[in-house]
Amino acid sequence: MSRAQRKIDHIRHALSHERELHNHFDDIEIIHQSLARLDFNQLRIDMKVGELNLSSPLFVNAMTGGGGEETKAINRDLALVARETGIGMAVGSQMSAIKNVEERHTYAIVRQMNPEGFIFANVGSEASLDQAEQAVDMIQADALQIHVNTLQELIMPEGDRNFTQRLDNIQRIVSSIELPVIVKEVGYGMSMETIETLQQIGVRYIDVGGRGGTNFSKVENMRRERPFASFNNWGIPTPASILETAGSGLHVFASGGIRNGLDGAKALVLGAEGFGMAGSLLRVLVNDGINSLIEEVAHIHHEMKMVMMLMNAAVPHELKGQPYILLGHTKEWYDQRIQ
Ligand code: FNR
């Protein structure tokens, strides 16, 4: 099977796998406030997260981009939507394009489509400093994501098995690259122990990439003759993972299973500063096209601003710490891990 075909399969499986019946964002209820004091039309959603100047807390998260013409077309369309809506966008892993020069145009298109936009480069934690710099140069990125995906690799028959150098690689990149570097999970979440270790090596930005949306155990198991189905529910749900970051002082992005602007607002209430969406945006693009995705982004912004209105939050940062209650699994998680 060609690499391009494998990436198309990846996308198909990512969009079609069975979702969890329960979304953990439903375990959070923001407490309604009756007395609004702001003007909806004056609400600001542009913001600063550390050194990142973003026009919205929402961004398109990394999705496989390189390979063939079909994945290039997806990258082009996502970049166009990001440009039209002003949101940030992460490209998918650039590792294969770093190794195969002929794939680079399938990423470079993102910068061509959106010359002024905020774009995140993306590499795996196997990347050397030189490879990370190539990824940034390829798309003149504004920030760099390094993804960590141990379980996905372990399920993939051709996946990596030796992770002895990973922490050193991350440390080298974080200490040498001038741009903000975000260490991100891909759907298994980050624990407070992981966060502490990342902090010790100088990491300042993370994307918790929690469980609850695109599930790479299921995606990779669909490609295996003998699946490791017992790992299909492994990982820290996104809201629990945001709670795990409490008090760390890191800049936290949330992703994994965010379905709409209300989920995004809940992530901000729990302590994240921005939120990424991958699978649910790609599904709209593939099924309904570019214009529908532009409308969807506007709808997500509108929903988030409705929550800001209800909480009297004039800017997204003011959502942090608004009153909420936790239910069910997330409450149990909080009681046993955080309290
Ligand atoms: C991804 N994701 C991902 N992440 C990453 O860091 N590098 C990558 O190359 C990819 N590739 C990729 C392909 C496809 C088709 C999807 C749907 C996702 C993971 C993504 O950025 C995100 O962390 C998870 O998908 C969780 O978010 P959602 O999909 O639940 O919103």
UniProtKB/TrEMBL annotation:
Annotated organism of origin: Halobacillus dabanensis
Classification via Gene3D superfamilies: Aldolase class I
Molecular function as annotated in GO: FMN binding; isopentenyl-diphosphate delta-isomerase activity; magnesium ion binding; NADPH binding; oxidoreductase activity
Reactions it catalyzes: isopentenyl diphosphate = dimethylallyl diphosphate
Descriptive protein name: Isopentenyl-diphosphate delta-isomerase
Domain FMN-dependent dehydrogenase: 160-319
Entry binding sites for FMN: 62-64, 93, 122, 184, 214, 257-259, 278-279
Record-listed substrate binding positions: 6-7, 152
